[in-house]
Amino acid sequence: MSEAAPQNDPKSSDRADATAVLLRLRDMGHIAYFAGGCVRDLLLGREPKDWDIATDAPPARVREIFPRTQAVGAAFGVILVRQGKSQVEVATFRTDGRYIDGRHPQGVTFSNPEEDAKRRDFTINGLFLDPVNDLVIDYVGGQADLAAKVIRAIGDPRHRFDEDYLRMLRAVRFAARLNFEIEPATATAIQVHSALLTRISPERIADELRVMLAPPTRVAAWRLMHVLGLLTPIFRFVEVPAGEPDDDRTIDRLFEKLPAEPLPFSLVIATAAAQWLWWASPAGSDIRRSFEKPVIAMLVGAVRKSLKLSNDECDSAGQTLEGLHPLLADDPPTVAILKRFLARPTAGLSRTLLAALNEANLIDESRYSMLQQSLAEMERTDFAPQPFITGDDLTATGMRPGPVFRQILDAAYDAQLEGRLASRDEALRLAKELERTAVVLPRQKK
């Protein structure tokens, strides 16, 4: 099986189509087995998502045998074969050359099944299956490790991680997904090599995290990354306070209470929320103050920089987190604050996070109950009406545009939301009064 990115993979295959490809290779005189992850999942009683094939047929020969192919990695012996409705990955048995960039071999030599198994990452991924004879072919002890629920590097784990730094995150991903332990020598090698993750592109690391920090693996994956020392090189631009973060497992508690279904922008919400708790907990700071805009901007910005995430992803996650600050501030939120919150495009995500914080006992339960009741009442009203006045209305009255414009418009809209204004004329009178106050007060201070 290839070590492709875990994000949306353009290839997909079902067993029937893959079996047809495998049998055709055999009919043409070649060795062909199912390989890697599909064998692992099948032996674990899981339904494989893809069925990959390993063969002694060189890439050119594969393309001769099958009329519809795509050379996605011919230099590494990988051909996609279109069969039925599937794209089946067919890889030639190979031995990898020297790795020069911490991700890819400089070249490959086509070889045999045993050598091909030994160049793979973990024993549980080094298995072959002969479906004709219903025979598992195991050169690396993968069956024993499946039975023992162990993630073990093939050969010397230090060598495996020197070859491909991203294998450290793959070990965490498999352990979290399968509920396996990482065996001691492999875990130690990850800890020793953890700093090498800074040499991997942030975007590639983000791809792995998007899979790991989604349900149901987010708690186990975060815990493993913490224990193995991977969080610091991953979030290299986050300023971590002195002392061990998350000693009381507050992050685990929060992650456990997040919804079981994937959330939009789940990667940034999960990492920013975790980093926020990481930053807040050791200092013993008031959790409510930690949702202030400068703190959230700092943490989301650090996550963005560490993982090279999109502006849209980070902005939406930041707004999700910032939306909680007015709800959790010392003073109870006003009607205007509650209505403005409901009008935010990220209000739904903020409320999801708010519920998780409450269930994890990280905010005051009485405040949460009050918020739930108040928000439910507000939702039955017209909580986002069109403002009575705009900036153009202020300009038409002779006001000069400037910083005070925004303050006046906000104050007028708050009064409208709270029912203290009933018309455009009343809003304009309030605006003129606020303008006079804004002008007079600074002059009196002089």
Automatic annotation (TrEMBL):
GO terms for biological process: tRNA processing. InterPro entries: Bact_CCA-adding_enz_type3_sf, NT_sf, PolA_pol_head_dom, PolyA_RNA-bd. SUPFAM superfamilies: Nucleotidyltransferase, Poly A polymerase C-terminal region-like. Residues 32-152 form the Poly A polymerase head domain. Residues 179-238 form the tRNA nucleotidyltransferase/poly(A) polymerase RNA and SrmB- binding domain. Transmembrane segments: none annotated. Its cofactor is Mg(2+). One of its GO terms (molecular function) is metal ion binding. Keywords: Magnesium, Metal-binding, Nucleotide-binding, Nucleotidyltransferase, RNA-binding, Transferase, tRNA processing. PANTHER family: CCA TRNA NUCLEOTIDYLTRANSFERASE 1, MITOCHONDRIAL. Belongs to the tRNA nucleotidyltransferase/poly(A) polymerase family. This is CCA tRNA nucleotidyltransferase. It comes from Humisphaera borealis.
